[in-house]
Write a structure and sequence with these properties.
Blueprint: H1 19-25, H2 29-37, H3 51-58, H4 61-68, H5 88-95, H6 98-107, H7 125-131, H8 135-143
Length: 155
């Protein structure tokens, strides 16, 4: 069915979401593989959220590993920010996904970046992990000395 040339696997809904995005959102790795084999593209939705950001926020390490594979034709930027200024690493820190933080670090993501946005500019991973009570992420950041020069002023 997916190999049928009349089927557009990249068709988007009213929010700019295609089938690849949906497969990542719901954690369906095998479906993601099939879609990619049939030309599925890793495109962001209309809000600018890409599939790596989704997988990091949802905590799906197997999909993050798949997306970070070096031999893939479609490269996904590791440090791209959502419209709210959050990177994939920040989304993982916010949700306490330590394994994903480690995968991103191994892949070369900049874990010292600070949030870039109108409302929360300057927040770093340490602040985000502390704010959400994720001790394992805080320990990892401190152990690896992955502390940015972010804004840690509490209001």
């Amino acid at each position: 069915l997916l190999a049928n040339p009349t089927i557009d696997v990249n068709q988007k809904d009213s929010q700019g979401i295609n089938a690849v995005y949906v497969s990542v959102y719901y954690g369906h790795l095998e479906v993601l593989r099939q879609l990619e084999e049939c030309g599925g593209r890793f495109e962001p939705n209309f809000k600018g959220t890409n599939v790596l950001q989704v997988a990091c926020k949802k905590g799906n390490a197997s999909i993050v590993k798949y997306l970070l594979q070096g031999n893939r034709p479609q490269k996904i930027p590791l440090n791209v920010c959502k419209k709210n200024g959050m990177t994939p690493a920040m989304l993982a820190a916010e949700k306490g996904h330590l394994e994903i933080m480690m995968l991103l670090n191994q892949a070369g993501a900049d874990l010292k970046m600070t949030q870039i946005g109108q409302k929360y500019s300057g927040l770093d991973l340490l602040y985000i992990a502390c704010q959400n009570g994720h001790a394992s992420v805080v320990s990892y950041l401190l152990e690896k000395q992955l502390i940015g020069d972010g804004n840690r002023y509490f209001d």
